[in-house]
Amino acid sequence: MIVLTVTGGIGSGKSEVCRIIHDAYGFPVYEADKKVKELYRKDISLLEGIENELKCSLRDERGCFMPGSLAERIFGDHDAMNKVESLVFPALVEDFNSWKQDHADKDAVVFESATVLEKDFFNGFSDKVIIVDAPFDTRLKRACARDKASEQDILRRMMAQKLMNSVSEGYGDLGVDAVIRNEKDFASLESEVKAVINGILTSKHN
C-alpha cells in the first residue's frame, strides 16, 4: 500500500484534489485536520493531557471540548503549540494506522493535511507527497468564500503557513513528488491530478 500525502495552503483546493483521487481511483482519504478535532472530543486522556500541559481548562460547564479556547491559547505561543503537538501527533498517527488497516485491500490511501510538511514529526511518514498550490490572492478569495470569513481573519491564518506561502511565491524547494497548480477550471485540475496519480502508480509497478 502507498501512503499519499496531499497538502497545501489554505484555499489551495487540496480537499477538491482528494475528492478527485477518491472518485477516480477509490482511494480512501484520511482528513487529518478533521480527525484531530474528533480525537479531542473522543479521547478524554488526550484532552486531559493537553489541559495539564497548558495548565488550563479547554471544556465548558458541560465538559465539552471548546476548540476556540485551544486555538486562542496556542496561537502565537510556540512553546504551548509544541506541547500540544507532542501529544496530538502520536495519537493522530496511531489513529491513522488503525484506520489504514481497515483499508488494507486498497493499493493506496490518502493522508490530507495542511501542515504536515511544516512538522518534523512527519518526516518520512509518507511514500509520496503532493502539494496543491494556487496564487496567494486566489487562495485568499477561495478561503473567504468557503469559510464566510473576513479577509483579515483568513490572512492571519494564511500568514502562519510560511512554508506554503514560500511555495506559492516560487521560493520553496521541498523535494516533494509533485506540485499540482489549481488555478484553472475543474477539467484542467482533474486532468492534472490523474496525470500525477497515474505517474505514481506506474512508477510503483516498474
Can you put this structure into words, describing what you see?
This protein has 206 residues and is of the alpha/beta class. Helices cover 55% and strands 12% of the residues. It has helices at 14-25, 32-42, 44-54, 67-74, 78-101, 136-147, 151-159, 162-168, 186-205; strands spanning 2-8, 29-31, 108-112, 128-133, 178-181. A five-stranded parallel β-sheet has the order 2-3-1-4-5, sandwiched between helices. The protein is globular, with a radius of gyration of 18 Å. It starts with a strand and ends with a helix.
Key phrases:
single chain; 206 residues; alpha/beta; five-stranded parallel sheet; 12% strand; globular
Care to count the β-strands? 5
Give the biggest beta sheet.
Answer: 5 strands, parallel
Compute the average pLDDT.
90
The amount of beta strand, in percent, is 5-15%
Provide a count of the helices: 9
Report the uncertain regions.
none
Q: Spell the H/E element sequence.
A: EHEHHHHEEHHHEH
- The level of helicity is 55-70%
Coarse shape: globular
Radius of gyration: 18 Å
Q: What spatial order of strands do you see in the largest sheet?
A: 2-3-1-4-5
Category from helices, strands and their pairing? alpha/beta
Q: Determine the N-to-C terminus distance.
A: 15 Å
In short:
The chain has about 210 residues and is α/β, with parallel strands linked by helices.
SSE map:
Elements: E1 2-8, H1 14-25, E2 29-31, H2 32-42, H3 44-54, H4 67-74, H5 78-101, E3 108-112, E4 128-133, H6 136-147, H7 151-159, H8 162-168, E5 178-181, H9 186-205
Parallel strand pairs: 1-3, 1-4, 2-3, 4-5
Helix pairs in contact: 1-9, 2-5, 3-5, 6-7
